[in-house]
Amino acid sequence: MNLKSLKQIFLEVKTPELFGRYVTNSHIENCLDKLSKPIISTLGYSVENRPIYSLKFGNGPIKILLWSQMHGNESTSTKALFDCFNLFEAEHSVSKQILERCTLMVIPILNPDGAERFTRVNANKVDLNRDAQHLSQPESHILRQSYTDFKPQYCFNLHGQRTIFSAGETNNVATLSFLSPAQDQERTLTTNRKAAMSIIAEINQLLQIEIPDGIGRYDDGFNINCVGDTFQNFGIPTLLYEAGHYKNDYDREEVRRLMFVAILKGLDVIANGVNADKYDAYFDIPENAKCFYDVIIRNAKRKDLNDLVDIAIQYKEVLIDCKLQFVPVVVEVAKLNNKYGHKEIEANGFLVETEENSELIINSENDFVIVNNERISLKP
Q1: Which pLDDT belongs to residue 339?
Q2: Which domains does the chain carry?
Q3: Is it the case that residue 305 has pLDDT exceeding 90?
Q4: CB under 8 Å to 373, separation ≥6 — which residues?
């Protein structure tokens, strides 16, 4: 796959109806109506009786199950999936081999109630990615039944991650992250885990060209309650994808394109035959750390301290009238020598105050600050 050509293809197939971070059933239903190639089914209904859809593409012998928005507020991969659907509709050469050799079953929003509220959990406040054993929720039953009926040979578990993650203990943001989940407490490197690792290694190799040092790897601590660990435990190579942050991309539109490439590359590797012996390169991907804040104000003076401090601000994502708002919240006041801000403001030893001329305190919300009589926005 050629990154330059994929960038042009993406512009041609991008789904214009889906934009930003708030993506719900009502958004994707308009897009589903425009598709002619896939078999579209309703698998069942959520706690609040919203339909959960599936799409089937291709007719090849290799079966791949993909699902997104298991966490309702992680929508980037849903957008990327619909961009892939448009590519499949166009019968482009890039996807032709994939659909000839593979059959894809895709669940684009597994948690429509959480998507509606823009929450991680479902309407019963259950994290579906911790419900793989109890299967206490209708959405969990639907995914497990889909797995049982479809009998996939590979699974793609598509998620989104917070802006705090770095690729290693560095100032490189983890724009995408991956994991081949463990399938036992010992984290045994089984054949299926190695297969997932080999696919991730090839995705990483391609995307390093565009986002060098911008890809992370999650810790593979075993938790059988997680869906990826459970499916891996069943002996099926399972890949966890995480869409992260890119500079000045809080709508995650650039990350959407990178996720589009990553999904296609993963499918392409499978279609061409996975060599599980090439798993070693997976461990070259640095493990994720939490080195970022959304904003850091450096070298701020405090009225009660002689030493200068740094002020860390993280955005709280709030849904207001069906629009996502980013609310700046002070989360730490200290010297943050090993932390980085997606946006950094240099206070140069001046007092940093609110618009009401008070000091910034932990958990306070502030859209603006005053530094040396200058009003500075903290919003993205």
Answers
A1: 98
A2: 3-290 (3.40.630.10), 292-377 (2.30.40.10)
A3: no
A4: none
